[in-house]
């Protein structure tokens, strides 16, 4: 691929068929990772511990790094995204999102994949597309959270960062394990629906309304729960209006 050219438009990126949307996402991330790489034929490969380039890796250094990590980030990765009733690809999406590893336009600009003029949100709101803007503050996408909270009967949120938002959302109904697990599932579903909506607008120039996105959240959460508990008795009509009553955790 290096010999064919992996720069933008290089022959190393030619495919026998048109890529799917999810493959386009992986391709954008891959090209971003390779953009700044320069191969030297006269230098041997080596491993490097980026947190201590001079001293190198040590158990003490790794322990210090882990114990000084932001608490919210650690809790978010361990307690939020890995949910047994949620498809693995959704949890992986959430991991990338919380670590700002998604190919949002600000990240693509930083990697010189797109121009600075193309950094604005796909919804046309006029703001740069960052991960926090896209999922929390975009005037086109953000109303989904209001509708979901109304559906669940929980109070509004004022968090501006994703890590704070997940903590506030998951804890909205108190400390009950079942309640937190359900809200965790809903939060993951909402982020997945928003990201797919964003990609449809970018790659297919097709969008849906907020009400249609809410419908997707209700359908997905319903079937995720049913898929892992075939004996779970949920009235689909009651689910549309009172999901907590259906699960007995209101």
TrEMBL record:
Pfam families to which the protein is assigned, alphabetical: zf-RVT
Looking at the record, the residues that make up the Reverse transcriptase zinc-binding domain are 57-145
UniProt cross-references to InterPro entries, sorted A to Z = RVT-Znf
Report what the protein is called: Reverse transcriptase zinc-binding domain-containing protein
Query: To which species is this protein native?
Result: Trifolium subterraneum
